[in-house]
Amino acid sequence: MKIKYAINLSKGLTFVFILGLMFAYQNFTIGPWVYLALHGTYGIMWLLKDRIYPDKQWEQKVPISMGIFGFMIVSLYWVAPFILISSGSEPSPPLIAAAISINLLGVFLHYSSDAQKYYTLKYQPGLITEGFFARSRNTNYLGEIFIYSGFAMIAQHWLPFLILGLFVAILFIPNMLKKDKSLSRYPEFENYKANSGLLIPKLFGSQSQFSADSAVSQE
Question: 2 - beta bridge partners?
């Protein structure tokens, strides 16, 4: 099976899982509703993204046992809504506003940069050094971190932040370093690397040094 099937299943069930928790704990306060809107919709958008501009790294085939394990790992993100809804904690309006703002920024960065990557490489394979990737080589990962930081903020517990940190350390960073190693085969990469951050955008650098029609293969 393709690894994306396990990931998509978890993402697609998120809305149902959160709504089920709300009924199970009879918690229909503002916090769970906001969380449902953010995380549940994020899962639906993930399925739409996979349909419109899929990520090739999730197309690899794995044994069913590995797929089940992948589903369980991705579903660790369900810890945040479980804590929020089962505990009955009520996030304050300023906290909700801040979490929504961070989440929306993350959605913008994640989905927009993935779209740029997909359609640029579809018609012009090579090294992408402009747009969302001009100052950060992994804007999509940065967006995903913002997304799950917003979820963790609403949960008001340290465990969702720890889970996010583990994903960053065990999955995100190794993937970013692996991609850098692959992209090092391009002659322009060293110059691009010097003017962009691995994750955090490098705000100061000579944009004019980048080729206007080159790009980053997000492998």
Answer: 61
